[in-house]
Amino acid sequence: MALDKELTQLLAEGAAHYGKELSGQQISQFETYMELLKEWNQKINLTAIEEDREIIIKHFIDSMSILPYIKNEKLKLIDVGTGAGFPGIPLKITNPMLEITLLDSLDKRIKFLNEVIIAANISGQKEMSEIKTIHGRAEDYGANHQHREKYDIAVARAVANLPVLLEYCLPFVKINGIFIAMKGSNTEEFDVSAKALDILGGKIVKIEKLELPKTNIERNVVIIKKFRQTPTKYPRKAGKPSKEPLI
């Protein structure tokens, strides 16, 4: 089912706000994604947001809000705790050069993501880099040598407080790479992140407050640069970072 003219324009204007011009094919990919999101949401809980306009603004355009911090080149990016694919899949649709790994701990969500990748045809074209899914916990994959310090960028959207997120995400990031934390309007957790940053080898280089287009919804994008290796004892065993955060 094609988006109506107003919704198509909303999506295109949202992308343009963050420096991207969407092709007809990309609009079509977002349409397929939204239809599958609504369809699967009847079976498994993927999102509380169900209206088309709200999905476009609060999921698709919100995911695009970090595009200005990502170079238009073949970078390796991991989306930690991707859930229904945000921000990873919108980033892939709008920036096909990215090589993206979607990590989630729930197998049902991984099955949904794999269907989106195939149905929306966002992988496997010659000019595009890969997008793949992995099922598991950040603590386990962050210690796995195939994933540890192998990514230029890690991203996470509303997964946990920043000290916990840092332990989940920084182990994946190469030295001189970045972790982009997509947060709400509350900034209190930033003040208690100094210890985690110091231990894990990260430094906040920018906190940018933004407002989603066509709304008064405030967001904070936190850019953390990895300046040295994360000690091998981190991340700690599954469940430990959230129970005993580094604060």
Automatic annotation (TrEMBL):
It is found in: Cytoplasm. GO terms for molecular function: rRNA (guanine-N7-)-methyltransferase activity. Its main location: cytoplasm. S-adenosyl-L-methionine binds at G81, F86, A138, E139, R157. Keywords: Cytoplasm, Methyltransferase, rRNA processing, S-adenosyl-L-methionine, Transferase. Its EC number is 2.1.1.-. It is an enzyme of class 2 (transferase). Transmembrane segments: none annotated. InterPro entries: rRNA_ssu_MeTfrase_G, SAM-dependent_MTases_sf. One of its GO terms (cellular component) is cytosol. CDD domains: AdoMet_MTases (cd02440). It holds the Pfam family GidB. The keyword Cytoplasm applies. Signal peptide: none annotated. It comes from the Bacteria. Specifically methylates the N7 position of a guanine in 16S rRNA. Belongs to the methyltransferase superfamily. RNA methyltransferase RsmG family. This is Ribosomal RNA small subunit methyltransferase G. It comes from Ruminiclostridium cellobioparum subsp. termitidis CT1112. The gene is rsmG.
